[in-house]
Design goal:
two-stranded antiparallel ribbon
Length: 282
């Protein structure tokens, strides 16, 4: 007889502020953005990491926080609508704005945040790749807290299994059978492990001196982690593009792996100054 951990029913609403219901998912977004803001300021202000004066002032990230927040929310929602359930939302367009009912796409959120950073950097004449590198170094914090929120909500659970750490999720659609806690796998790989890798690059390898290296590693690392965890995550039928055994999460992550690998190669092909221009080694 197999043993399974029964996950208790946890109210998706963390607290009520009068008529406003504050959900765990919203708290995860808010906390990760605020923590990321603090960390980006520290990275931008650490002259040792830049080999001298940083090309980005810490206060630049005060304004950028709002830009990225908007990019993540709008991009994440539109990504979910277009990548996963276009037919459903075509017939129910009024639900597109109902983000409180759940439904966000990482890939859409990533594209939205990148667009926001690019627009902000161009407007303030900042080196785009360097700004994105700093943002990429803190992005795994968002992945970590976001996946923990998925776990608390008992959503995006994994496939049926008999591993000793299998869990029974309270959602009736989970069938009351032991499943992989795939949200925790993603929190560990996309969040903690990837953050530590990027932290090593920025602080021990001074990777910020090579624009694109941190971003490329972040994109590549996330793509590989997501493809791996998709083998344990339950695929929702009729949700997104499915090709043979490959889930939408896998398919959408392949371009990330290729693009991330190209950025890493480009940054490592020579000494890259913070201006973004490649300077060949002597």
């Amino acid at each position: 007889m197999s043993f399974a951990i029964i996950l208790p029913v946890i109210d998706p609403v963390a607290l009520h502020l009068g008529p406003v219901a504050v959900r765990w998912y919203g708290l995860a977004y808010m906390f990760s953005l605020l923590l990321g803001w603090v960390y980006t300021r520290r990275l931008a202000g650490n002259q040792r990491l830049w080999g001298g004066k940083s090309p980005i002032r810490p206060d630049h990230f005060d304004d950028l926080l709002m830009w990225v927040t908007l990019g993540v929310v709008v991009g994440g929602r539109l990504g979910y609508v277009l990548f996963y359930k276009p037919a459903y939302f075509f017939h129910n367009p009024q639900q597109i704005v109902q983000t409180w009912n759940g439904g966000m796409s990482f890939h859409g959120g990533m594209l939205g945040s990148l667009l926001a950073i690019w627009l902000y950097s161009r407007r303030h004449k900042l080196p785009v790749l360097s700004v994105i590198d700093v943002a990429s170094a803190v992005a795994p914090l968002g992945f970590y807290f976001g996946r923990l929120a998925n776990f608390v909500n008992g959503e995006l659970w994994g496939r049926v299994t008999d591993v000793p750490w299998a869990m029974v999720f309270p959602d009736p659609e989970a069938g009351g059978v032991p499943r992989h806690p795939s949200q925790l796998y993603e929190a560990a790989l996309e969040g903690l492990v990837l953050f530590l890798v990027l932290r090593y690059l920025t602080h021990s390898r001074l990777a910020l001196l090579k624009p694109g290296l941190v971003t490329g590693t972040a994109i590549l690392g996330y793509g590989l982690a997501r493809i791996f965890v998709e083998n344990f995550r339950q695929f929702e039928e009729g949700s997104g593009l499915m090709v043979g055994p490959f889930t939408p999460g896998m398919i959408y992550s392949v371009p990330m792996v290729l693009f991330g690998a190209w950025l890493v190669y480009r940054a490592g092909s020579g000494k890259t100054g913070i201006s973004g221009k490649v300077v060949k080694s002597a």
